[in-house]
Amino acid sequence: MSQLPDSGLSLADLRKRIDDIDARIHDALMERAQAEAEVNSATPASGETRTVFSPERDADLMRQLVERHKGELPLATVEHFWRDIICACTGLKEGTAIHLDGGAELIEMLDLARFYFGFSAELVPGGDAADVVGAVAASRSDLGLIALNDRAELPWWRGLSETGAQVRSRLPFVVLEDRPADLPALVLSRADGLVDNTDVAVYDARWSDLLPGKLMDQGIEVLSFFRSASGVDALIAISGELSEEDVLESCAAAGAAPDILRHVGGYAAPIDGDGDADEAFGPE
């Protein structure tokens, strides 16, 4: 049998090598699933609460993936592969439903949900973003997926609360040029209290006048806003290192302090998959 010039191996040998690699990958996947099951079993005894959605842990895993990635396989393919494994191993399929924002294109929402949460979780199309907030608040384990639009049809974030539905993640997390499932969105989950160690903090801010024009100059990103006859509601994002008082001062420096400011969640800063693997970006 002839040998191929690049590797010195025959085509049959190369195919056998692939079969051997596939077998090792399968064994490693089974070992990982077993290790995850042991973590799940040990969690209650450690005093920690077991959750089916751990965005901070997921973000750490994705950062490590981007840092070590090299080779011909596209990063987006590897990311999807790992996300599917993580969801399957952590029990996201155990009675967890993902409620989808009905105000966005359904096919885009389905693509986004399947890319990030695999095919195990139940997907539930909702009426609008407010319905998604209500469904998540009424459940102990369900998640919500809301598309980010500059101008919202309603201030759905008013329904977010410290002990109800909160913003926990922003998608896409690994930002790539021409990536699949690139619809900007927020992931909601219910919590018993606000998570205060996130890279980016999210606030419900309300002004009785116009939205201050220089928020970006103060490192504040307007994720979405809703204008009415009584003023402007906005969902804003800013560095999680700042206190609520700091945020009020930043808004005042931008033109006006809001009449109402509520902390409604936070997320890990997305990373640039096309540039420096260590580069995080978002409100600074």
Automatic annotation (TrEMBL):
Its EC number is 5.4.99.5. It comes from the Bacteria. It is an enzyme of class 5 (isomerase). Keywords: Coiled coil, Isomerase. Residues 11-38 form a coiled coil. The keyword Cell membrane does not apply. One of its GO terms (molecular function) is chorismate mutase activity. Residues 5-97 form the Chorismate mutase domain. This is chorismate mutase. It comes from Roseibium porphyridii.
